[in-house]
Amino acid sequence: MPARDALPPLQCLRAFEAAARHGSFTQAGRELNLTQSAISRQIKRLEDDLGRPLFERDPDGLRTTPAGEDYYRVIRRVLRDLADETTRQRRRGNERQLTLATSPTVASTWLARRLTDFRDAHPDIELRILTVEDPYRLDLAEFDLGIYYHLSNEIDPPGLSAEAIFHEEDVIAVCSPAYLDRYGPIHDAEDMLANHTLLVVEDFFKDWLTWQHWYQSLGLDWQSPAHSLRANSYQLLIHAAFAGQGVILCWSRLLGEDIAAGRLVKALPHALPSIGTFSLLTPQHRHMSQAAQRFSRWLLGQRPPQGAGHEDDESAAARPPAPPSDRA
Could you say which of 19, 171, 260, 294 would form a disulfide bridge with 28 (CB–CB 3.0 to 4.6 Å)? Predict the structure, then answer.
């Protein structure tokens, strides 16, 4: 550093804040899209500038020193204030804009269908949709609210608080009527594995529910399916299900309208209560704009009363297939 009173580089402060929050250089690197060694170099540079260690290792892993803990409290507040003010400056003169972050699947299959109602009720708000697959990689300065699938027993994404949009959610196996017309009925769980095509998502997120877990959680016998179509995009596989390519696991609220309309039907009667929920993510320690408050109230007002169940979805799934002209 050219001068002792110069501020450390922003990247060093971001690396330090993330490492102190996670208690891990590796986790900090994942959040910032850097290698573990790059995080280590940034923190070493910061420690050299300050003239004291900020971390120490013990049998439980990495933890901050007393000096590091004091510095972390200050840097965390400064970075959050900086992110908030950056957001305000970017939006100055356009206070009516609301940016929603969500995954491509939620955006295309659930959110887009509901935005017309919100826009009719709040025509003065300009909406912007930001699609990011992993909520743990969100930049807090880039959005106002997020909508993501979130496990209740998991730590909320950094700087965010999660509130369930739906209190209850089932994971069910569905297919299109056209698939059943072409390949015949699915008699039971064993028949589905032996004689039908399962649509399988190959995903790196640890909270993703696999076919094997679904079978085993319901007490059903599992073996590798005889036929499968695999992809690393759940959104792509949903379109494949609509096109009659196979059977997919889905969340009953996410595709409830398609089930009610007969575009998708239950392949089996089994339903597994989801261990996670579709949730509204709100940045912490930030004053919510009027637009964000209005959207939050509107969205949470859409959810049914707790304990209402899925009677409409179940009755819709039992209806006969829709006419060919209505099929996806």
Answer: 19
